[in-house]
Amino acid sequence: MPRPLRIVIVGAGVSGSGVAAGLVRAGAAGGFSAEVELVDPRPSPGAGLTYAAGGDPRHRVNVPSIRMAAVTGRPAGEAGEGNEEDFHRWCLERGVLEADPAGWADGLHYPARSVFGRYLDERLRPLFAAAGPVRVTHRRDRAVAARRLASPQGAGFVVELAGGRVLEADALVLCTGNPRPELPGVLAGLAGHKRVVADPWAPGALDPIGRTDRVLIVGTGLTMGDAVSTLIGRGHRGPLTALSRHGLVPRPRPAGHADSWTDFAADPPAGIRDLLRRVRVAAADAGGQGRPWTDVLESLRLQNGALWAALSIDERRRFQRHLRPWWDAHRFQAAPQVARLVEAAQADGRLAVLAGRLVAASADDQPSGGGDGGGGHAGGCLWVVHRPRGDETLVGRTYDALVNCTGAGHGASFRRNPVLAALAGQGLIRPDPLGMGVEVDGRHRALDTGGRPASNLFVVGPPTRGSLGEVVGASEIVPHALAVAEALAAS
């Protein structure tokens, strides 16, 4: 009998655990056996950074619970097509929706993100622990290097872990998720300053901010909503200022379900101007028929892979440069609870949202006048200059703290991830032309420096955005994870 296929998956968030769960399913269907090593230092598979336990309960999923999809190992169709209703049913069974005001006027529920992480952990642990032809081992460790290994059976990989263990693999799956945020260029000189929060996703990142601090939030997307929710929830009373180039905040999610309505992919446009024109026409038609604009966005979400593939590299760059902020503000809508809080904070003057570009920033070593006790902070004041959008005037202001909410640091993924850096150094992977992650082909296979796909090196999740389109939410990641699992089983 041939030995089981050895598969190493780096990263155990929604992407990595989804691939592992898909492999377990494939093994249960018969004809496939594998030893799967799921490498991630976090205690629970599935949660990843987004849904980790211990997160602020004010941070909500921005998709109704009834539509949160995940690979759980339960039979397809048992709790709705594609298991989409499984999370909602789990919430009902655990009393989550009774104990938490997650419901909204339209009857939909938006639980805390950490609740979705608990759900994944509860569903995945028994699946991975079960005996069967595919055995999954969660290695609570961090991968620090990887290299190609030639053997009589073919070209595999060696993955080195921080704890000293070395894993050999016939196939390697990279599920490294979103890279940690990093300060944008103008703010780079403030790195390490105790009053500057470079990574708001880190546990306790906002703890040093006093209740009366003057806070500048750089970025106005979903992460800004999280930061405002945390600060106000803790009783923050000082002024909050959020700044981004366009000053766009996430659109509130309209009541009810969003249903796909328009087919853009049957004849995909080759340019973003044509695509934008067609989207505007479709939105106007939808409004004329009493349908919400989110039905058009749902069509784009479901068809985004085909639409992205039809665009040239130059058109993709044009989208990134001109339309990305508008797409993000409409596509990544805020949960109703967060949207209402941000709106209320703006209405009563606690939060000001500005449009402009950062010009300069510096730190003053003298203690500032903010803080809970009024005695000032040892970290000193921050002086930040920005140019308002549409204006040549420079505006300089003093703040007691700064929170970087510009999102994932995609441009730094190869530099900051040792596994990606090691594989790139060997010419086995390369950045995508937009600099958003790892370049892959349509079958999720990594491309080497010569543009050739590797049959046993796959990438799943956010690192594939530049190649495959929008692959960020669980509902987009799951089908990609299952496709890779099916490809590995077929091999």
Can you give keywords for this protein?
alpha/beta, six-stranded mixed sheet, seven-stranded mixed sheet, globular, 32% helix, single chain, 491 residues, 19% strand
The largest sheet has its strands arranged as 8-14-9-10-11-12-13
Secondary structure tally, helices: 13
Radius of gyration: 23 Å
Shape: globular
Mean pLDDT: 89
Strand percentage, roughly? 15-25%
Overall number of strands: 16
Major beta-sheet overview: 7 strands, mixed
Q: Separation of termini? A: 16 Å
Uncertain runs with pLDDT below 50, 5 residues or more? 75-82, 366-379
Percent helix, as a range, is 25-40%
Structural class category: alpha/beta
Series of H and E elements? EHEHHHEEEEEEEHEHHHHEEEEHHEEHH
What would your notes on this structure say?
The chain is of the alpha/beta class. The chain has helices spanning 14-29, 86-94, 96-99, 113-129, 222-233, 272-288, 294-309, 313-331, 336-347, 413-416, 418-425, 465-468, 474-490, and strands spanning 5-10, 34-39, 134-139, 143-151, 154-161, 166-169, 171-174, 196-197, 215-218, 240-244, 351-363, 382-388, 395-399, 401-404, 445-447, 453-459. The strands form three sheets. Strands 8-14-9-10-11-12-13 form a seven-stranded mixed β-sheet. It has a six-stranded mixed β-sheet with strand order 3-2-1-7-16-15, covered by helices on one side. It has a three-stranded antiparallel β-sheet with strand order 4-5-6, with helices on one face. Helix 1 packs across helix 13 (474-490) and helix 5 (222-233) crosses helix 9 (336-347). It starts with a strand and ends with a helix. Mean pLDDT is 89; it is low at 75-82 and 366-379.
